């Protein structure tokens, strides 16, 4: 009598995931089931090797194989979109304890996953500015582009030849965003610039004066001492699309 | 008498990267482009604009990957509704999928053969009806390649034809898969083709494969179409007529010029099989609007 087809399907998928521990499905050829396993595994390994190309280079072959096999056999993928797998793999890398990965490799993997996410991001509807923009950038309200990512790492992960052994004195702060041509751009930020971006986001809807005043308080400097830095930074960010006109600016513009 | 309109429509799969750039730059004489909706549904930015620009030139065919129409878990209705939205937005000529399962309680992102049992037929038919109800259109399902299959009550051909009939859906006939399966499972591919219901064959695929042993071929889509498949394709046109045909190439993708030589060969094989006069290479190929 034929086994229940649902049980056969479960056996088939179980074997593909973990042929070392799952029985060969009833009626199937063992060697050809191994072929299935290898084809499916290679498919997942391929997208991970491509996405994490640089961090992969810092992981020994046997350790990489163990990581991907463990991920493939134990982490259920609930998204119908293959491009979502790298994000799940990054979570797995950060949580797993089977293979001890150096911290800079984990941070590099997070950086590569962020690049992947930015490259693949869906379009979103940007908020519409409610008034025409004034001549002075300080007279309009701005917000960080919602698809940009503020990325912080102890290591200069965006540099191809960064050393895994040396911990730099300063962290690396980056703004990562896909541009209009589809290229993922990476902008360096100083600690003050990064903090101001966070404050601009928190004060979204207000002109930049409010967030700049808070930044000045945090830095313990007079706001007017930051004006030159702020004007240059705003101009660059607006030109690069890092900042976009905030929605609701008309109602909130007086807070500057 | 056969006329120009009897000629076969031929397309290739659109993939991001160098192939897409070559298609954009050269606007080759293709009758349609096929994409996997899962790879394009959440598009954004420049590539989305480029995709939409190509659709003003080429009709679109969709060939899905993740529906898992034979899967044991409940249908992913959110995904089916997302598909519907994408279909409504881009109005493809055909939306096709695979007669297989690619997930149990989680996705495996590749195709597994559904056990050839009567209970599985009923299960798949019910799911096809559910998908067709949401999409508001008939599904076109592909006969998939497989390397080994679990315990069965029926053969592949009976399983396939039962589902087509009971679900009242159409067939994407993958000619390479017929050949691959005929070698892997020892049957006559032409007899297989000759038994399929003509009226349900709506779309064809041809592709290259990798022969690992005299009785084992892997359906790689990573090589040029093999000679026995060209022969089988001619037989297919003889039986089913000028069915739209896709050249599948997913790995080791050569320059577009090489793919266009295979496209030209598909047209030539079809014209020969259909008794049409050879084409004048300088004759412009009309491209219908999507």
CATH architecture of the largest domain in chain A: Alpha-Beta Complex
Strand arrangement across the biggest beta sheet of chain A: 2-3-4
Mean pLDDT across every amino acid position of chain B:
94
Number of domains of chain A: 2
CATH topology type of the largest domain in chain A: Outer Surface Protein A, domain 3
Number of helices of chain A: 10
CATH class of the largest domain in chain A: Alpha Beta
CATH architecture of chain B: Alpha-Beta Barrel
Distance between the termini of chain A: 79 Å
Radius of gyration of chain A: 24 Å
* Annotation, overall tally of beta strands of chain B: 12
Distance between the termini of chain B: 27 Å
Question: What fraction of the residues of chain A are assigned to beta strands by DSSP?
Answer: 5-15%
What is the ordering of alpha helices and beta strands of chain B? EHEHEHEEEHEHEHHEEEHEH
Cα-atom Rg of chain B, whole angstroms? 18 Å
- List low-confidence stretches of chain B: 282-290
Summarize the structure.
Chain A has ten helices and five strands, in the order ααααααββββαααβα. Chain A is mainly α. In chain A, the strands form two sheets. Chain A has a three-stranded antiparallel sheet, with helices on one face.
């Amino acid at each position: 009598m034929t086994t229940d087809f649902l049980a056969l399907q479960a056996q088939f998928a179980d074997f593909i995931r973990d042929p070392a521990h799952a029985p060969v499905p009833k009626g199937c050829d063992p060697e050809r089931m191994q072929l299935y396993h290898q084809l499916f595994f290679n498919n997942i390994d391929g997208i991970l090797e491509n996405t994490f190309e640089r961090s992969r280079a810092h992981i020994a072959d046997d350790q990489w194989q163990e990581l991907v096999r463990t991920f493939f056999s134990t982490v259920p993928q609930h998204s119908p979109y293959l491009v979502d797998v790298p994000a799940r793999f990054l979570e797995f890398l950060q949580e797993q304890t089977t293979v001890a990965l150096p911290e800079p490799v984990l941070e590099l993997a997070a950086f590569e996953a962020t690049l992947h996410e930015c490259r693949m991001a869906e379009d979103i509807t940007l908020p519409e500015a409610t008034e025409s923009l004034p001549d002075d950038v300080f007279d309009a309200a701005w917000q960080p582009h919602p698809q940009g990512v503020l990325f912080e790492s102890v290591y200069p992960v965006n540099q191809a030849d960064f050393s895994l052994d040396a911990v730099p004195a300063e962290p690396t702060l980056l703004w990562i965003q896909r541009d209009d041509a589809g290229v993922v751009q990476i902008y360096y930020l100083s600690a003050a610039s990064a903090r101001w971006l966070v404050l601009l986001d928190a004060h979204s809807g207000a002109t930049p004066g409010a967030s700049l005043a808070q930044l000045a308080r945090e830095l313990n400097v007079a706001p007017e001492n930051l004006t030159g830095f702020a004007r240059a930074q705003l101009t660059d960010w607006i030109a690069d699309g890092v900042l976009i006109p905030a929605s609701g600016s008309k109602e909130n513009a007086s807070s500057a | 008498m056969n006329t120009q309109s009897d000629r076969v429509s031929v397309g290739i799969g659109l993939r991001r990267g160098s192939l897409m750039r070559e298609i954009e730059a050269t606007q080759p004489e293709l009758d349609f482009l096929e994409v996997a909706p899962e790879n394009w549904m959440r598009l954004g930015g420049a590539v989305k604009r480029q995709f939409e620009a190509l659709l003003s030139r080429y009709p679109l065919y969709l060939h899905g990957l993740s529906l898992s129409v034979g899967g044991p878990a409940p249908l992913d209705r959110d995904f089916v509704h997302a598909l519907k939205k994408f279909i409504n937005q881009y109005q493809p000529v055909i939306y096709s999928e695979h007669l297989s399962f690619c997930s149990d309680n989680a996705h495996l992102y590749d195709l597994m053969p559904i056990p050839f049992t009567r209970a599985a037929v009923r299960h798949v038919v019910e799911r096809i009806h559910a998908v067709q109800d949401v999409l508001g259109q008939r599904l076109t399902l592909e006969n998939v390649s497989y390397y080994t299959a679990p315990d069965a009550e029926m053969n592949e051909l009976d399983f396939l034809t039962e589902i087509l009939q009971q679900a009242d859906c159409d067939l994407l006939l993958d000619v390479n898969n017929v050949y691959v399966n005929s070698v892997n499972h020892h049957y006559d591919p032409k007899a297989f083709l000759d038994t399929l219901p003509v009226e349900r064959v709506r779309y064809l695929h041809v592709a290259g494969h990798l022969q690992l042993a005299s009785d084992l071929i892997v359906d790689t889509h990573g090589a040029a179409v093999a000679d026995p498949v060209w022969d089988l394709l001619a037989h297919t046109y003889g039986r089913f007529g000028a069915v739209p045909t896709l050249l599948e190439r997913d790995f080791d993708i050569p320059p577009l010029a090489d793919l266009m030589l295979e496209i030209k060969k598909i047209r030539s094989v079809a014209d020969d099989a259909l008794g049409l006069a050879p084409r004048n290479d300088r004759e412009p190929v009309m491209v219908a609007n999507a």
